[in-house]
């Protein structure tokens, strides 16, 4: 075999450039460092940046903050664009979920936040790529503010929602929020606020994204700690350059995660600038440098001193919708009210729940079960706390497998009978 007919490496620089792939996929990067490393033992290849004080230093000085030495103090931070990304593409299993999410803004004029539930799958458009497939958006409790929204995380029912998602093989894979302002033209267009001359992700949003990525670490056997980076994604619904509503997908770099974890940086009023915290008695701040191209076209290293551009911390992803949608939760059956929308008069309660359950009791067949395949309906039912874990698991199994046989077993369970009794006493059945 000659050089002309040998298959290209997935990290081949010319291939990535020709196909305009800015960041190589994580597994391409892993393949690259595995090939170039003499050590292919799992746990020895990947090392995450750490900018905190090393504990249990054996140099004989007092523990931080009373003492420090060159062995336990963090080294200088040099920021440069990350060459790989943990996720390459975000795929929404159907467009209806985005439309439903946007309806809150359309009805109220206020911004909205949601968590993305889904799973990770191979992505063929990028060598050894990974895509985050979103199956549902859950909107946690949130308060409208003049300049955005405020969240109180974790919320009370978070574990319950995660449990329902787990029954379908799903987990929390990201977050999504709107930044929309109608342009007043009456054409349905919005003001483009995020562009190359302003910002794409603000310093506040980057800090929040880093905290969420730290909370949802990626399990990896090639890392000494068993974890490396994160596959948690951040999606912003805002205006594109034409004034149309669009989705923009991002992650923040490993350096961003490490700097937030070490409490080195904080957001500024200018969304395009990240501040470096001032050193305090118990907070050690290492020097931070970043590389840039000067006016002569030469790459130079500059001391960030008190601040630096956020572009060094952002990783861009692509997004889209499948050509042949096959969502776990079909849009035709997702008619139950969305959670935590009391501010626009949409309140989840047992009345629409009774309307959904009544046909099961009268005609327990597969077609009826399909209509219950609604993530918002199921999470509401779980938060009521009426069905125990075993009966709830059986209920979801019936729905997931479209199995009408097991529904008769479910109808005889004590917790299901309790639910039916409550609905009867409320004159809803």
**Helix amount:** 25-40%
- Beta-strand portion reads 15-25%
Structural class: alpha/beta
Euclidean distance between termini CA atoms: 74 Å
Can you walk through the features of this model?
By secondary structure, the chain is of the alpha/beta class. The chain has 2 domains: 79-320, Cytidine Deaminase, domain 2 (3-Layer(aba) Sandwich), CATH 3.40.140.10; 348-425, no CATH class. The protein is built from 12 helices and 17 strands. Strands 4-6-5-9-10-11-17 form a 7-stranded mixed barrel, surrounded by 5 helices. Strand 10 and strand 11 (245-252) form a beta hairpin. Helix 4 (158-167) crosses helix 9. The longest helix has 13 residues, at 96-108. The chain is globular. It starts with 12 loop residues before the first helix and ends with a helix. The relative contact order is 0.13.
Task: Give a short synopsis of this structure.
The chain is α/β, with parallel strands linked by helices.
Question: What's the layout of helices and strands?
Answer:
Elements (H helix, E strand, L loop, with lengths): L12 H6 L5 E2 H11 L40 E3 L4 E2 L3 E4 L3 H13 L4 E11 L5 E10 L3 E4 L2 E4 L6 H10 L3 E8 L24 H13 L17 E7 L5 E8 L1 H8 L3 E3 L5 E4 L11 E6 L5 E5 L3 E3 L4 E7 L29 H13 L3 H5 L4 H9 L5 H12 L4 H7 L2 H12 L4
Parallel strand pairs: 1-3, 2-14, 4-6, 4-17, 9-10
Antiparallel strand pairs: 5-6, 5-9, 7-8, 10-11, 11-17, 12-13, 13-16, 14-15
Helix pairs in contact: 4-9, 5-6, 10-11
